[in-house]
Design a protein that fits this description.
alpha/beta, Rossmann fold, seven-stranded mixed beta sheet, three-stranded antiparallel beta sheet, 10 helices, 14 strands, methyltransferase activity, NDUFAF7, SAM-dependent_MTases_sf, transferase, SAM-dependent methyltransferase, MidA family
Length: 309
């Protein structure tokens, strides 16, 4: 009697993205396949610089302050932060891009393949969603599923978020200051199988041949619990406003045009049915989160952001 081998989703997903012929290993950049916040304009980098400045002050202005961009892709966010920094912060700022794919030569940005120890702000922008996970079919006795996906129906599939939990806990422990995960996700009350692919600007079925990016929503509550400590989970829409990113239109002539263009970009970043629905999971490590953000409404997933195909 012959039995069919069990398909190893996690291994296939990892090979499809990071193996020798994988999507990212051969140099593909997310910017070529889907629109994301750093590509909209400089406003996300401005907000993160404001957050970094608050971390810097809470740490007592160390001689070197880090901005670490984990899952940096083409380095757009890291380079924008480096370029926009001014004053004392700029003179002490060390910017590191963490990426498994080939590095991009950008002035003032160091590249590495592993998360370094740092003092300052670590950001994982759409990083956790690209960490491969096992996939199970209900019913399942997997301990992670038992705790974080207890309503998994018979025959339904689920991504087991344990690898993301471990990666995020390690990232938070690597930084003295703050760590921020920005991503699309879900909570235990709203779990849904979301594994999907992206290729050339279009959502496609996830195939494991290296031809497309493969992602799945992040279980924010599980990641937060794994890292522990002092944390908040808020929406990008609310966080950007709290960090001073506004879209007011004013002035006349060229100034009016510039402010109108900025208002359009800010509106895109804060759109509650789009990028504004992203979750911001902020952990303090040696810094109180209350020193970095005011009290904001807790993040809730937007059902419209679920995009499994």
């Amino acid at each position: 009697m012959h039995t069919c081998p069990v398909f190893d989703w996690e291994a296939a997903w990892h090979a499809a993205l990071y193996g020798p012929d994988g999507f990212f290993a051969r140099g593909e950049k997310p910017s070529s396949h889907f629109r994301t916040s750093p590509l909209v304009g400089p406003e996300l980098a401005e907000a993160l610089l404001e957050l970094l400045s608050r971390v810097d002050a809470a740490l007592g202005f160390p001689p070197v302050v880090d901005f670490v961009d984990v899952g940096a892709g083409g380095g757009e966010l890291a380079f924008a932060v480096r370029s926009l920094a001014t004053g004392s912060l700029a003179s002490r700022l060390r910017v590191t891009a963490v990426e498994l794919g080939p590095p991009v030569s950008l002035p003032g940005v160091r590249w590495t393949t592993s998360v370094p120890s740092c003092v300052g702000l670590l950001v994982g922008h759409e990083w956790l969603d690209s960490i491969p996970c096992p996939v199970v079919t209900g019913p399942s006795s997997d301990p992670w599923i038992t705790r974080w996906w207890p309503s998994l129906a018979d025959g339904a599939q689920a991504e087991v978020g344990a690898p993301r939990d471990a990666a995020w806990a390690a990232a938070v422990s690597s930084v003295r200051g703050a760590a921020l995960a920005i991503d699309y996700g879900h909570l235990v009350s709203s779990r849904r199988f979301t594994l999907t692919g992206y290729r050339a600007g279009r959502q496609v079925p996830p195939v494991f041949d290296g031809s497309c990016d493969i992602t799945a929503h992040v279980a924010f509550d599980a990641c937060a619990a794994a890292a522990g400590g002092d944390w908040v989970l808020v929406s990008q829409r609310d966080a950007l406003a709290a960090l001073g990113v506004a879209g007011d239109v004013s002035g006349s002539g060229w100034d009016w045009l510039e402010s109108a263009a900025r208002a359009g970009r800010v509106a895109e970043l804060r759109d509650p049915s789009g990028l504004g629905s992203f979750g911001w999971l902020l952990h303090g490590n040696g810094v109180e989160v209350s020193e970095l953000l005011p009290v904001l409404p807790p993040w809730r997933p937007n059902p419209a952001s679920f995009s499994g195909v």
